[in-house]
Amino acid sequence: MDDIEPPFEKTYPTLFHNSTAKANDERLAAVDEECQLPSIDLARLNFWSFDKWIEEMAEAASQWGFFQVMNHGIPQKVLESMRKEQMKIFHQPFRKKSEQNFMNLSADSYRWGNPKAICLKQFLWSEALHIPVTDISRLGDESNNPRSTISLFSTKAANLAERLAEYLARNLKIKSSYFRENCLPGSSYLRMNRYPPCPPSFEVLGLIPHTDSDFLTILYQDHVGGLQLKKDGRWLSVKPNPDVLIVNVGDLFQALSNGVYKSVEHRVVSHPKVERYSAAYFYCPSYEAVIESTENIIEPAIYRKFSFREYKQQIQDDVRATGNKVGLSRFLL
To answer: Can you give the pTM of this predicted structure?
Structure first.
């Protein structure tokens, strides 16, 4: 039977077995505690003060950069189907997943590890399918066609992201049509992730510390856990709950809000014995969209105006030069 697992050790023996590379690598920072994210219940919009509800969500976005959403509008059956479809996709033989036209998608859609890593702290013990929304209609193969489930999840996640973005923008004096005008239906993308069991002796992460290069990310994760965020200089483990969706602020919303909302560093630690699945919808603008900080009399703009194309290009340049994303600090005034 063909192996489904990406050949991490075989492909990168120097990283995993070279004593010098491991000696120069940083050990995984200790996690202080498990945290319960602030909860936002969309059903409360029918019973509570709308302004108070907005205030609670804005407070979560500014103090945590993360919150979890209940009664989000995506049926649990759809979320469960997403996980089943992901299992079908990722449990195919590695040789098939690494084919150029796997699932009828472009050559770089299936990703695993990190071919540019020069040390373990840059390596990813995970595999993923990166799908622009415009490519979902191409999904499928002879034996399995998950298109309908993935398309439904993507459509509902897009609607939720737009709705939450407009709510968060209310107290920033941003016109209500900003997101509808700049985040076009085809500008966002979906990333389906699988984190294989990882031997703890490797001291390697499923996903390295990073911030998201979008406005908002809508994340569905299973019951396994492993998502961690950095708050007040400490790594906190997010308590898993498959019945809610996790929302986090991206770099673009931090810039747009003039630093009011926080794009927080986060990572994933793979479980040593069981696999973990998640699906993330990244709410992005078109490449020509301009992000300009909202300033007022008290707080002048802290970021210069830039286009999404410029931001993505800067990230690519920094990764190529240093191996790491630098992010918003490149655009400070």
So the answer is: 0.94
pLDDT per position as a tens digit, 281-296: 999 999 999 999 987 6
Going by C-alpha positions, the residue among 35, 67, 39, 62 that lies closest to residue 263 is 62
d(CA 138, CA 305) in angstroms, rounded, equals 35
Taking 3-state DSSP, the helix, strand and coil percentages for the chain, each rounded to the nearest 5, stand at 35, 20, 40
Query: Strand locations in 118-255, DSSP E?
Result: 127-132, 189-195, 207-210, 216-221, 227-231, 234-238, 245-249
Q: Rounded CA gap, 136 and 121, in Å?
A: 32
Maximum distance among all Cα pairs of the chain, rounded to whole angstroms: 66
Instruction: Report helix, strand or coil for 306.
Output: strand
Element (H, E) at 76: helix 76-90
Of 83, 194, 267, 276, the catalytic one is 276
User: Locate tokens 């240093």: which residue?
Assistant: 322
For all residues of the chain together, what is the average pLDDT?
89
Give the helix ranges, DSSP H, for 170-307: 178-182, 251-256
Q: What is the pLDDT of residue 1?
A: 47
Is 276 tagged catalytic? yes
Cα–Cα–Cα angle for 36, 41, 42, nearest 5°?
145
| 293 backbone dihedrals φ, ψ, rounded to 5° | -60, 140
